Each structure stands twice: as C-alpha cells, then as structure tokens.
Give the backbone structure.
Amino acid sequence: MNARSSADGKRGWLSKTRLEAFSDGVFAIAITLLVLDIAIRPGGSPLDEFLSAWPSYVGYVVSFLTIGVAWIGHTALTDELDHVDPVFLRLNLLLLLVVVFLPFATTLITDAFGDREAERVAATVYGVTMLCIRLLGIALDRYSLGAGLYADRDPDVELSSFRRKDLSGVVLYVLAIIIGLVLPGIAVSIYFGITLFLVIPFRELGRLMGRRASAVRS
Amino acid sequence: MNARSSADGKRGWLSKTRLEAFSDGVFAIAITLLVLDIAIRPGGSPLDEFLSAWPSYVGYVVSFLTIGVAWIGHTALTDELDHVDPVFLRLNLLLLLVVVFLPFATTLITDAFGDREAERVAATVYGVTMLCIRLLGIALDRYSLGAGLYADRDPDVELSSFRRKDLSGVVLYVLAIIIGLVLPGIAVSIYFGITLFLVIPFRELGRLMGRRASAVRS
Amino acid sequence: MNARSSADGKRGWLSKTRLEAFSDGVFAIAITLLVLDIAIRPGGSPLDEFLSAWPSYVGYVVSFLTIGVAWIGHTALTDELDHVDPVFLRLNLLLLLVVVFLPFATTLITDAFGDREAERVAATVYGVTMLCIRLLGIALDRYSLGAGLYADRDPDVELSSFRRKDLSGVVLYVLAIIIGLVLPGIAVSIYFGITLFLVIPFRELGRLMGRRASAVRS
Amino acid sequence: MNARSSADGKRGWLSKTRLEAFSDGVFAIAITLLVLDIAIRPGGSPLDEFLSAWPSYVGYVVSFLTIGVAWIGHTALTDELDHVDPVFLRLNLLLLLVVVFLPFATTLITDAFGDREAERVAATVYGVTMLCIRLLGIALDRYSLGAGLYADRDPDVELSSFRRKDLSGVVLYVLAIIIGLVLPGIAVSIYFGITLFLVIPFRELGRLMGRRASAVRS
C-alpha cells in the first residue's frame, strides 16, 4: 500500500500497487467497451438481422481475448517486479494507450466488412495496433530487466513462456500486416489464430493430462 | 499483493489479487453500462414518454441484479481459493466475456418489445447468455476443485448454496429458452423470477427471523 | 484479502475488501459516465452554442458532487464495518442500482430544460432517485447495526455527521419532490443546495479555523 | 484496509486506500472514454477517411498523456500521505470532476477543426480545464502540507519534481490560454508540448545515461 515499505529511501522507486490498480482498471474498461461496438444493422427479419451481424460477434470475441491475453501478460510481468520507477510508469502508459485504441480498431474492421478497400485499411490498423501491444510488452520486460526492477527471476514461469510466444507473435504480426495489404480477410484470420494460440493454455493442459495419465498408471 | 507470497516456488501458481481486481472492474463496468441502454422514445406527453419506456426500466433492473448475482457468486468462489492458475485465468476470461455481453442482450430485449418475432430472437439470445454465465460459473468451480485451487473447503458457506441454486438454475434456463421460442414474454418473466430468487437471501432472512424468534422466547 | 482471516469459521461472514472494490468501481464509472450527458445543441455561433449548454454543465456538477457525496458516505460506513454478510451485499447492490440510475435522471433534467411539463417529470424522477440513495444509505447503516457488522462504534466520526445530515436530507428531498410537481426549477435548486451542503465540510472548516484562531492566540 | 489501523482514535482521519481505489477508477475510466471521441467522418476513399481523422488521433494521444500525467502526479502525491481527511476527499473530488471533463473538452477541439471561431472556444475551454487540473493538484499538495497529512517528506522524490514543473505549467497554461484567443492552433500545440515535457522522464533518462557513462568509465 505504501511506496516506502518496499522502497526505503531508494530514490525514484515507486510502489507497484497503484500501477496495477490503474492498469487493471484501464484493461477492464477497454475490454468492456468492446460490447458497445456490437451493432445490428436494420434490414430483413429480426433473426436475419441478428445473424448477419456475425462480424461484430467475431470482432468482439477476438478483441476481448486479445485484451484478455495482454492483461494476463501484464499480470505475469508485474507479478515478478519488486517495484516500479518513473520510466516504467510512462512505458506502461504507452502500452495502455495502444490497448485502449483496440476497441476503435475493432469497429473499423466490423464496419469495413464487405468493402475490400476499407477492409485493407482496417486490417492494417488492427494489425499495427496488435503489433504495438506486443512490442511495448517486450519493451516493458527489457526495461525492467535492465533497470533491475525484477525481484528475483524464476525463468520457468508464465512470463518466460510469454516471452517465447512474444517473439513468434512479432514475426507473425508483421507477416499478417503485409498479407493484409492484399488479402485483409486472411490477415484477420491470422490475428484470430494468434490470439487463440495465446489463450489456449497448452503447457497447463499438457501438465494436467500428464498428471491424469500418471494417476491412471499408479 | 505478491504472487510468491502465497505460491513460494510452486510452478504455475498465480496470485488471485489481480484476478479479483480485474474481474471486479469488468463486473462493475458491465453493470454500470446497463444504464446507457435505458432509452426514451419520443411521442406523446413527457409523462407518457417516461412511463412508456417501462420495458427499459425492467430490463435495467433484471440485468443489474443478474450481473450483481453473478458478481456475488464470483466473490463467493474466489474467496475460497488459495491461488489461481493459468487455466483458471482463461476460464474466468470466458466468464467475463459472456457477462459483458449481457448489456447487449438486454438492449435486444428492450428494443424488441412489441415485435413478436424480434422478441423470440431476443429472449433466446438473453436466455443463452444467462445459461452460459451459469455454466461457466459451474466450470470454474469444478476446475478449482479438480486442480486443488481451493484453500480448505467449508461446505456450509454461501458457495454451496450457490451450487445448489446453480443446478436448478441450469434446468430452469434450458426450459425457459425452449418456452421462449414460442412465448418470449413468459421466458423473460422466468429470467426475472430466477434472478429475484437468487437475489433474495432466503437463508439469511430465515436465520434472522429464527434469531428474533428465539430472542423473543428467551 | 481473505474472507476467513476476519471471519474464522463464522457462518455467512464475508470479507469487505471485494465489496469495497466493486462499489468503488461502480461509483467511479457512474460518476465518469456523467460527462457523456454533456451535449451541445447546434445553432448560433460556437460561443453561443457552448454557453447555451449551461444546464448540461450545472447538471454535470450537481450529479458529480451527489455521487461523490454518496461515495464518501459509503466509505465512511464501510470503514466502520468489521465484515459484511449476504444481506448487506444485496442491500448494497440495490444502492448501487439507484446510484447508476442517476446519470439517466440527469439527462432527463438537462433535456427537459425549457419544457415545463418535461421539467416536472424530470425533477420528480431526479428527486425520487436522490431520496432512494439516501434511504438505502440509512437502510445499510441500520441493518449493519442490527446484524452486528460494525467493528466498534466511535460515535464521533464522519459517519455520525452523515447520519444527522441524512435525516434532514430525507425531509428536504420529500419537500423538494412535492415542490417540484409545481415548480420544478425550485426543486432542482434545492437538490443543488442539499448537495452543496453535504459537500462543504463545515465541521472540518470550523475545526481548522478554531485551530488557527488558537494558534494566533498562543 | 482499515481506517483505524493508521488513525487510532484521531478524529477526522480516514484511510487513503479507498480514496486511491476510487481515484484510480475515475482516472482509468476517463482515460479510456477518450477512445469514444475518435470519430471518422464519411467522405472519400476509406484510406482518406482514416487519415483525415488525424486531429482525432492527436487529441486522443494528447488527452491520454495529459490524464496519464495527472494520474502519475496524483500517485506521487498520495504515496507521500499518511492519511487523508474529509477536506482532502472533497478537494480530490473537485480534481476528479475536472479530469473527467477533459474528454468533453477534447471532443470540442477535434470537432472544431477547420472552424476558427469554434477552435478559439475549444482551445480556451481545453486550456482552462488543463489549468484547473494543475491548480487543484497544487491545492491538494498545499492543503496536505498545511493539515499535516504527509507522513514524512523526502524532498528529493518525483513529487518535488512535479512541484517545480507545476509552477512552470501554470504560467505556460495561462500564456497559452491568452494566445489561444487569437491563435488557437498554436495554443493547442503548446498544450501538446507541455504534456510531452511532463511525460518524458528527463531526470530518470539523465540518471540512466549517467549510470551507463560511469559503467563505461569504470
């Protein structure tokens, strides 16, 4: 609760409690605002209207899971920190700035549906937003390492698994952005795929299955 | 405040503090966004306009109490947990995804008022949303039991009362969804009824009355 | 952070931490959504347009301070609590339901400006909302006393000052609602007056002035 | 978590935990609502439409960083506090009232783009809002000093750097408001400049560079 409890006189050290509270708030609001982007266009029977809004629903689910995964990554990163400093606060602010932009990028995509030119613009904006989230996540991690903000590193935690996924994520996002300039639909599918890959807890599922297998054997 | 304080080196264990903060934020925002769905359609005197928006008010109250009850259930569940793990984080994310969808389902219902076909679609979407909230709540509970996330179980707490209510809830929601395909108005009344049943603290009222009765006797 | 830490085996006892976090979230969102109700109607020069929206600004300030005062009262009440129980959670949910309704009531008032009939409806809805906030605050306090939720009462804290202000508030709100049926403008002025009265920290200002006076004397 | 733990019987002392939670919530929501102000006006190709909304993006970034800097300043201030009192709560409420107004002022600016008269009104409203945020921040600091709310002052922390920046900020804002009456575009550029100046962590960058330089030398 108190900056000095963990910082005892060290200059520029700040408590991470409020950083977490503020970030949790921003993530929670950005993820919840996504529902405002679900829009049903009039025309046809009520059932047709509801079903024809499917791009809205896909956009909602993908963006929700993307922000959710970004939040999980943020949690994994700050859980490891001993304290934060003014530079970390500001890098974190930039990350939040991009996360909050995601609902707007999602609206672009769902509004563009059916207009190839608009799809191309929307897919690019969406891809660049996703790429920036990932790059700023990596920047926060690198800065924390360099500035000695981490408490004591346990390399075998969720964070490290995120770090490996991060790198493949960056390459995939760059490829998807380039593909999206020509085939926006495929780029959006790739974004969905990356998010699903990050959401599905492969390691934990493997561990659980292993545990059950050994329980059966013994 | 710190993952390691309760997790001391156990792999994959995460602090539940930020999960609770993030979830509280999402529940709080979803419940507050409901007020944006209250809309008054012009026509008639100001009093008529205000009163004729009654479906908005009913939808607001029902959805508010539904999200409120889901939040109370979430609190009861996570209060019992010792820690969380990556799978729990992701199941929780799915639960929030459906909770945040509820304000949209509410708008569908209040907009559909008077158009039987639209009412049928809206009642089904609303019912399926409510059913998913309940099913994901049960999934979180079952997973926590199986993965050993609970601290030590006291079977006689609010949670267990929720669990019993959960099962009857699932059956009732499925019935209401089927009924809603024919008689959407009755389905919506059932949703209102289930929510009221979950909101009214029967056990506690009974206990309080019992306490007063024995106070009178002694 | 943990229900059992303060509740050790006592049935039906719940931690107040998440109640506070959830309530803080709802209060914070309701108070922030008020800004969405500020609307400028086109017509005239940009300066005229901006200035002619003054009822929006007054409504924003009054509602902001009203929710702020309700939050301060909520803080003062829960600070005194040792724990909460399921009935308290539900009463609190009803209080939040009414607080979240306030931004809608504010829109009614600012939209009604200039139409006497609409002003009467809006002033009544606003007054009843404010009255309900106050009544539910009193209900929470009474229930907490009766159910033994308070830790140990210090009668000379902000809470007691709120309790006295509460009673005068109820009487004033009822009077203002009745007046508003005839003279809505005067009722709205009374609501502004009550809120200002609750916002200005008379006791503390008096204490500060007393302290300065004695400092001058000595 | 508890008012009495740090206040032990001292009248009018309140815990700062809920003040921080509520303020974090309001800052987080206000900063996130900014994305709703990004609007694309139809006309031209999808790429032209997206690019021609650049004033929206600039407004989003400037306002996001402004609220972010205000939040960092708020954190630095309350981190230093031992407790809060009713007057502080109310001054803080006024600060939040102005912070929440900023998204509206941002919409004014982005909507005014191209209409000189509207730009003048918008630049003035925006500048006065920014000035009030700064003045209320200074008022909170001065009051906390006078009322003995600070735990023990370490003059060489972020706070003091904010205090020096505060004063230059006030002078610059007043100048920019005056300039904005004639040349609104230049005033808006100044607001962007002040925010950038406050966001860039000069001291910390200097310290980091110094550390690296001495590491190279040794």
Chain C touches chain A at residues 25, 28-29 (CB under 8 Å). The mean pLDDT of chain C is 82. Residues 202 and 208 of chain C are 10 Å apart (CA to CA). DSSP finds nine helices and no strands in chain C.
